[in-house]
Design brief:
Elements lengths: L9 H5 L5 H13 L1 H18 L9 H11 L13 H24 L16 E8 L3 E2 L2 E2 L3 E5 L3 E3 L5 E5 L4 E5 L4 E8 L2 E8 L2 E5 L6 E4 L1 H8 L16 H10 L15 H19 L3 H4 L1
Parallel strand pairs: 9-11
Antiparallel strand pairs: 1-4, 1-6, 2-3, 2-5, 5-8, 6-7, 7-10, 8-9
Helix pairs in contact: 2-3
Length: about 290
């Protein structure tokens, strides 16, 4: 499937009408095909603009005006010589002949059974599966499965892990001591907020469809330039962290291949930061030696 261009499937993809396998194949094609990806971005922009349009209600008097016009009798149209009885008889004879030929034609054509296309509605919430421990959605503990709605928080403690099904485009695994919130669940935008901790995602979707908001990126968007007051403790093995620090223009203090999570890189960088502060504040200058 989708060995050629998929522009005809863009609308079905945006409205969640494709199966999981079809969505995956569509996304893989979009990533490699510039033409289809450009068309997809245009359609997605149109959907976003349409979502911003205000919904207006019809005036209350509109229906009463329509009822009045329906109830008002209209004068019968004057008879036209074009529709005299000889013309009507001839038209009826022609119609009978056409219907006869159409009946014979359809009887000779074998019927093709119609295949029912499955309807896949966009679920307003994402399914959460407990992997281990007792993860929580809000204050409710998840025994096996749960639903994460827009605006709700999913939190794991030091002994808990969970997995979130991101609609039909993939899943996200939530590590211990992590807190995330579902911000947006639309056909053209799936967005999570990572407040703390670590998560890993496996997504088969075109670019700019799945997003993760982090505190540092959001702060820089809200107050450009505040990144000058930050320091990256270490370089993570996660590819997404490299993309983030490149975007922010930060050089990590340490590059030790750490993969422990839970802020271990920041803790390891604290002695280095303290040493730098002491050097600047207390180290003697050459002029002091004279």
């Amino acid at each position: 499937m989708f060995s050629r261009h998929v522009t005809k499937q863009i609308s079905a993809y945006c409205h969640g009408e494709l199966s999981s396998e079809e969505s995956k194949q569509f996304a893989e094609h979009i990533i490699s095909c510039v033409k289809c990806r450009t068309k997809f971005e245009e359609v997605k922009l149109g959907v976003k603009l349409a979502e911003q349009l205000a919904q207006l209600s019809a005036p209350k008097h509109l229906w009463s005006d329509v009822e009045y016009l329906l109830d008002t009798p209209r004068p019968a149209p004057a008879s036209s010589p074009l529709w005299s009885w000889p013309v009507q008889v001839t038209a009826a004879a022609v119609l009978i002949v056409v219907l006869s030929f159409a009946t014979l034609w359809f009887q000779g054509v074998p019927s093709i059974p119609r295949q029912r296309v499955p309807e896949i509605a966009l679920n307003p919430s994402w399914q959460v599966t407990r992997i281990e421990g007792t993860p929580k959605i809000g204050t409710e503990q998840i025994s096996k499965n749960g639903s994460l709605g827009v605006g709700e928080w999913l939190e794991t403690d030091e002994n808990s892990r969970a997995q979130i099904a991101v609609g039909q485009i993939g899943h996200v695994e939530i590590d211990p001591n992590t807190r995330v919130r579902l911000l947006t669940n639309q056909p053209t935008e799936h967005r999570l907020q990572l407040e703390r901790g670590r998560m890993s995602a496996q997504i088969w979707a075109p670019p700019r469809l799945f997003f993760v908001d982090t505190p540092s990126a959001v702060a820089e968007d809200l107050a450009p330039g505040c990144v000058a007051w930050w320091a990256a403790g270490h370089r993570s093995t996660e590819p997404a962290q490299q993309l983030a620090i490149d975007k922010l223009g930060i050089v990590p203090l340490l590059d030790l291949g750490l993969r422990l999570g839970e802020g271990s890189g920041a803790v390891a960088a604290v002695p280095l930061v303290r040493s730098a502060a002491l050097l600047l504040a207390e180290m003697a200058l050459l002029s002091d030696l004279a």
